[in-house]
Amino acid sequence: MIIKHLKLFIGILTFVFLSPATAQENSTTFMEACRKGAQSPTITVAGKENWAFLKSELRFLSAGDFWGENAAKTSQAKDPKVQDPLAAITVYQKALAAENIDLILLPIPPKAVIYPDKLPDVNLPVARYDQSLQRFYDILRKQGVQVFDVTPLLINARKNSDEPLYCLGDSHYSSYGCKVIAEALAKEIQKSHKLSGKQKYTTEKNNIRITGDLYKAAQNSSGNTLPKDESIALYTVKGGETKSKESPILILGDSHTLVFDIGADLFSTNAGFPSLLAAALKMPVEVMGVRGSGATPARINVYRRSKADVNFLKQKKLFIWCFSAREFTEANGWNASVPIK
What InterPro entries would the database entry show (predicted)? Predict the structure, then answer.
């Protein structure tokens, strides 16, 4: 217990007391580590203590500013018309507002942003090195988009628990990470959007072993030192349905809206972000997630749903757009012309 609290104290000191010169030096080191990782011959970049990182996330973090004129240099999309995420997000927010629907943008930070100290070949303290993301979120807020930036929340959660917020061998957050985000977002929704229910859910904790996508990819790599699987805690919601098409809340996005929630190759059911948000809000939510990009395909699905059901948009009060932040550069495109109806 004493050792645990000593580690926690040292971690807090490391996080807080950094001179401007040291902070800049660490940021440079972080960017260089991400650039090096982005050159990996496989999708898996092996870090310290069996932590594995996704090559495309490190490429994103090494790209710098990625909106406006910079989008042409940083985006993986070939079509210049769909390279800029700023235009697509602001247009979508305004279209929803015209339907009296609020939008919360929920980008999930790359693993390296929360665990920079686990990157290979560098010794970095836990701090924020995602300056481009912070600048982008500030621009979005100035244009009326509510951004729920969970990076400070997750970094702070690291100080209070040794439980991983991300999977070591998978590109997604852990069930515990889902829980931390869901509970904090629920408080914001209850406060700012006045949405909550009375359904009584319970949450049960148990452990399972999973083989994530990064560990799988590493198994065929020469010199691989990563394990085949890992033990992970699940926070499974019970006590009633957590999903409903009649819910005033819609969660749309990429596989971060599905992992630990739909089973099969996504590991488990009712232990992911949507179910844990429903439990925290005491009301079901609706989910329209995709396994691919959460940038454009997820919005296309919303459009198709609204065309098929004339009452769909009338039922909704809040959209939560949840996707990996790497999508800002790694998506196939940010189409600003996708309608909502």
Answer: ALGX/ALGJ_SGNH-like, SGNH_hydro_sf
DSSP code for 145: -
Helix axes 2-16, 151-160, angle to 10 degrees: 150
Looking at residue 19, its pLDDT comes to 73
Residues in the chain: 341
Question: What CA–CA distance (Å, rounded) separates 199 from 214?
Answer: 37
Question: Locate tokens 């359904």: which residue?
Answer: 199
> How does pLDDT run across 223-268, given as a tens digit for each residue?
899 999 999 999 999 999 999 999 999 999 999 999 999 999 999 9
Cα 8 versus chain centre, distance: 25
Q: What is the rounded distance in angstroms from the CA atom of residue 294 to the CA atom of residue 301?
A: 10
Question: To 5 degrees, how large is the angle CA 26–CA 135–CA 10?
Answer: 35
Report whether 274 contacts 285 (CB < 8 A): yes
H or E segment at 154? helix 151-160
Where b means 16+ CB within 10 Å and e means fewer, 147-178 reads bbbbbebbbebbeeeeebbbbbbbbbbbbbbb
Is the pTM of the predicted complex or chain greater than 0.70? yes
- With beta carbons less than 8 A apart as the criterion, state whether 234 and 206 touch: yes
Residues facing residue 324 across a β-bridge: 108
Q: Name the 3-class secondary structure at 147.
A: strand
pLDDT tens-digit profile of 296-331? 999 999 999 999 999 999 999 999 999 999 999 999
189 neighbors 181 (Cβ within 8 angstroms) = no
Average pLDDT, the chain: 94
Taking phi over 0 as left and psi of -120 to 50 as alpha, with beta for the rest, 264 belongs to left
Write out the H or E segment, with its range, that includes residue 321. strand 318-324
